[in-house]
Design a protein that fits this description.
The complex is a heterodimer of chains A (231) and B (262).
Chain A lengths: L1 H7 L16 H25 L20 H28 L2 H6 L4 H12 L13 H25 L5 H7 L2 H28 L2 H8 L9 H10 L1
Helix pairs in contact in A: 2-3, 6-7, 6-8
Chain B lengths: L17 H16 L9 H7 L8 H21 L40 E4 L9 H6 L3 E8 L5 E8 L2 H7 L8 E6 L4 E5 H4 L4 E4 L1 E2 L2 E2 L9 E4 L11 E7 L19
Parallel strand pairs in B: 1-10
Antiparallel strand pairs in B: 2-3, 3-7, 4-5, 4-10, 6-9, 7-8
The chains are: A mainly alpha (231), B alpha+beta (262).
Chain lengths: 231, 262
């Protein structure tokens, strides 16, 4: 892709390739497929939950759920489990192979997290360079990825408690898996609220997740390999 | 932990008013005819229409049902024919079992044992109808298993009766056929795949906790299979058909997943 762009633009010499974008196209696509899937799964999940609620006081009104009827909500849920799982699997492979995870999310140090909180409370948190995640960001991203993985496992257990009995054993009972799945939904919903609110506060992060964002010297490795062959 | 049932469609307070459903369907169908909903399976539509009955009818429903059928195939592939569901001890058994039907317990029409007959049709060698006495003469299999409802609740029940595999062999059923369809005294219908029918924990239950099944729970004969959701276990069975044509069912025709495996 970048090679084509460079050839198309005569001003750019092949030896002076620009570094990759902060969010390569693959990452952006996976982000939005994941966003759509997670939201559809949460909204349809609320409708499914309503028929046998876990918390007596909590009932999701039809106006905020997806499906309208339990059978339709179930159909939506069991449709969007596929893009969530497949997209998520590709993302995990991508993040590992390109080294993106290690570069962007690790190491996470307690000191860094405390520093971020301190800067936030004193209104000194810098948003100038969105290429580097702060301590709290790293923790939130790694945390939500872990929760989605647990959500997939508890979801598979609820779908197939007997065929996947080895996974059911991790939770003890089918009802425990339901509770874990419900708590996971609550945590992911909380993440989405914080994530969207902070993105709106720093709108260039949203632009970056659409257009790719600033050039990043330490970009994803797929382009590093291209560069090394070019030099 | 509290698990509360609100507006359950598997235990509706006042049955289902078909009139309302039909009126509504007419309106939605007329919208569909104008093609308004066509091709609206987009992120935009999803965001805008959340809270509406998105996908309950029309072309989106057709797409959702296609995915549901794909999921049937995935479940059939995942099914482990010899893998047993966990069983429980006698003191964990809930008595009486949970009532669940598409109407209230007081609307149950009990089946008379003397006039009851089990009709057989389709790919079966001996189609002689069965009586209650003949059914009770078959050797019994007992299973203490969880009943899991698609809504999310469950309970442990103790069921006994002839193994379905044994029964199918007895009547000379073509066990290479794909499906078994059931008709019930209350006009409920259901169907399962042959692999599930032959599973060691699939029985034609005649007893609960050692006693003949009481009227509200399916006397004299119901299906109990450990590897399917509750709605895949028809009660008050009056007819069994072995077929290669995929049959539907009461809830399945309304959009619940056909395989319904667990």
């Amino acid at each position: 892709m970048r090679t084509k762009l460079a050839q198309g633009n005569g001003m750019v010499k092949s030896t002076q390739r620009q570094p990759p974008r902060l969010h390569p196209l693959a990452v952006r696509l996976m982000h939005w497929i994941n966003a759509l899937s997670v939201i559809a799964l949460i909204l349809s999940g609320w409708k499914i939950y309503d028929d046998a609620v876990i918390l007596g006081w909590l009932h999701f009104d039809d106006s905020i759920t997806l499906g309208g009827h339990p059978e339709t909500a179930l159909q939506w849920h069991f449709l969007f489990m596929w893009p969530l799982m497949l997209n998520g699997l590709i993302y995990l492979i991508y993040g590992t192979v390109t080294g993106r995870f290690m570069r962007k999310m690790f190491p996470i140090s307690i000191g860094e997290i405390i520093a971020t909180i301190r800067e936030t409370l004193s209104f000194k948190l810098s948003h100038d360079d969105i290429r580097h995640y702060n301590g709290v960001q790293k923790l939130m991203y790694v945390g939500v990825i872990a929760i989605v993985i647990i959500q997939v496992i508890s979801g598979l257990v609820m779908w197939k408690p007997i065929q996947f009995s080895e996974l059911t054993a991790l939770f003890g009972t089918f009802q425990n898996a339901r509770i874990v799945h419900f708590v996971g939904m609550a945590l992911i919903s909380g993440f989405i609220c914080v994530h969207v609110a902070l993105a709106l506060l720093v709108p260039k992060t949203i632009v970056a997740m659409v257009t790719g964002g600033p050039r990043d010297e330490a970009g994803d490795d797929t382009s590093h390999s291209q560069q090394s062959t070019a030099h | 932990m509290t698990i509360k049932l609100l507006g359950s469609r598997f235990r509706p307070a006042k049955g289902i008013d078909q009139g309302i459903l039909d009126n509504h369907r007419e309106l939605v169908d007329s919208i569909n005819r104008r093609g308004i909903l066509r091709g609206s399976l987009t992120l935009g539509a999803l965001t805008m229409l959340t809270g509406c009955e998105l996908g309950h009818d029309g072309s989106i429903q057709t797409a959702l049902r296609a995915v549901s059928e794909f999921n049937d195939d995935v479940q059939a592939a995942l099914f482990r024919p010899d893998h047993l569901a966990p069983t429980y001890s006698v003191d964990q058994v809930v008595k009486p079992p949970h009532f669940n039907a598409f109407y209230d317990p007081e609307d149950v029409r009990p089946v008379e044992a003397s006039s009851w007959k089990l009709e057989l049709s389709g790919r079966i060698a001996d189609k002689t109808p069965w009586t209650v006495a003949k059914m009770y003469d078959l050797p019994e299999t007992e299973i203490i298993i969880k009943h899991i409802c698609v809504e999310g609740w469950d309970y442990i029940g103790q069921w006994s009766g002839p193994s379905f595999k044994l029964f199918l062999e007895k009547i000379g059923a073509d066990t290479k056929a794909k499906y078994i369809a059931f008709k019930c005294a209350d006009d409920y219908t259901g169907s399962i795949d042959m692999a599930t029918a032959l599973h060691p924990q699939t029985i034609l239950a005649t007893k609960y906790a050692g006693q003949p099944i009481a009227d509200p729970y399916g006397f004299p004969l119901r299906l109990r299979t450990a590897t399917k959701l509750g709605y895949k276990n028809p009660k008050w069975i009056t007819a069994i058909e072995v077929t290669n044509v995929k049959p539907g069912g009461y809830w399945e025709d309304r959009g619940f997943n056909w395989f319904g495996g667990i």
